Amino acid sequence: MPESKARKRDTRQPETAKVAEPIGVVYKSIMFGLLILGFLWIITFYITEGAFPIEPIQYWNIAIGFGLALIGFLMMTRWR
Predict the structure, then answer these.
(1) Helices assigned H by DSSP within 22-59
(2) How far, in Å, CA of 24 to CA of 78, rounded?
(3) Nearest residue to 78 via CA among 30, 23, 25
């Protein structure tokens, strides 16, 4: 009876895991700055009862504040 051929072994070396480089100081400053600016925007809107930061757009000020904070939170996902 004929013998089956031996399987070839995988001779490739496993790839080493790449070490993530730390994020720079500028990135962190922008990230925390957007978070703080967004929350301050909302707080200012509520404390001044809608007179500031931009009176004509009224409750869109809340959306702007949350948008700024959301961008900061999304930037946190890349922070290592």
Answers:
(1) 25-47
(2) 11
(3) 23
